Amino acid sequence: MKSFGLSVRTAAFFLALFSQSVSGKDCVCELENLQRPFPMEKLNSINTAANDCTKSITSTQLTEVDVLMLGVQRRLDQLEKSVSVLENEDDGDLYGAVSLRIIELELAEVQVLLGKLKNTIKSNKQLSEITATKMQNVTKGMEELETFDVSQVVSKQRENQRMKRDLAKCEHELHATPQPPIPRPRRCPQGQLVNMNGPRTYSLTQYGTSYYYGAWGKDPKPAPGKEDMYWLVALTSSNAFANYVRHYSSLSTILVGVGPVDTTIASSNPTTNTIIGPNVVQYGDALYYGCYNTPSVCRFNISTRTITNTPLPQNSGFNNKFPFGHLDATYIYTDLDFATDESGLWVVYTTPDNFGNVILSEVLEGSPPSLGRSWRTSLHKRTATNTFMACGVLYATRFQDKQTEEIFYSFDTETREERYDLKIHLKKMQTNIQSLNYNPRDRMLYAYSDSYIVSYDAVFQ
Ligand SMILES: *[C@@H]1O[C@H](CO)[C@@H](O)[C@H](O)[C@H]1NC(C)=O
Ligand SMILES: *[C@@H]1O[C@H](CO)[C@@H](O)[C@H](O)[C@H]1NC(C)=O
């Protein structure tokens, strides 16, 4: 059995010379350092160099490459599909010509993306070469400094760490006999939400940093031919209102910001039945959102450009009465929050008679839309920063710190089980998240965060 105690040899660094004066009156103790003096300045300069290295490669640059790679990958998939369509359809006639034109356009998009990717990689490569040289320098310096470690504190520590790791690994293997999973009713084939990976994509929109509030995503029940489309709504007036929805043909086009198509809800902003608040969703080729200045659910039919609405229960909060928040700040005009999941469409809101605690209602698609079943929860709306639905379970987030948003709460509509102890973390790229929505088709969570559009992979058990 090895001992894990840290052994620090208390070597005699100093030679003590005692001398007594002849008179016997003074006692003098002279200390003479036999060691070379420790080069503190050198340690400091290495420290600075190491910090510089870390700073020069930021995560943003890495993410940039990721996003572009993803864009190229998606476009290539699309291109492949189109080519096979052309192969099947080509009768040497009009069909073939049209398909060919589409492929040409796609090819052009891929080329644009590849160009961007090439430039990004080139600049990152230069950066990493410089950084590598610096890192070598830092390593060399550290090795030199280690020769000052006569008492071998560092090397012993390292040895200890290694042994601790071995021990932990050994213990882990000992306990690795799999625990039988706690049986849970499986309402959703994919099981329970356990994690959010990502960000998978992270990008500014075409608007740059002009609009801090908004939402984006992919219609989980798209109209035929619109399966690859992405929608984007930015609150273009007072961080509160919008009067049009923007569509992009694919993920890469929304990330790069090319070729949008705008569909106008009303010619002025705001006006009756235009959008208030960021938590909108698109479902079944229609946009669902809080109606301007009324406690109602609005639906904008994208193909017919017509609006229908349905009122919320009496006294429901609107016009910033019951927004989401954290500490003493609130996310303005977030009285209503729309959500999509495997079972359809939902709206989150609250009323004074539920003490400002979240109420969840189904939204039924009929004409006009209407509210279905409702659930009253004990979650105070203002203590949450946002909510989303997945597999019939309502999830709420809170602000943990600038880098992290925590999914801390869940309410299961089937069992009415409420939990406040979830600890699923969302890694943020910006401080605030203004909207969150889950798409059951690609199982991604779409977030709008201080002008940036971000997505995460939902991981189920
Ligand atoms: C390496 O370190 C030396 C001194 O420690 C310094 O003069 C030199 O500029 C460093 N080189 C780089 C590439 O940082
Ligand atoms: C939009 O309008 C069309 C034409 O009336 C209709 O077929 C479709 O169901 C409507 N969509 C929604 C979501 O109501």
Automatic annotation (TrEMBL):
The keyword S-adenosyl-L-methionine does not apply. It holds the Pfam family OLF. It comes from the Eukaryota. Residues 187-461 form the Olfactomedin-like domain. Its main location: secreted. InterPro entries: Olfac-like_dom (IPR003112), Olfactomedin-like_domain (IPR050605). This is Olfactomedin-like domain-containing protein.
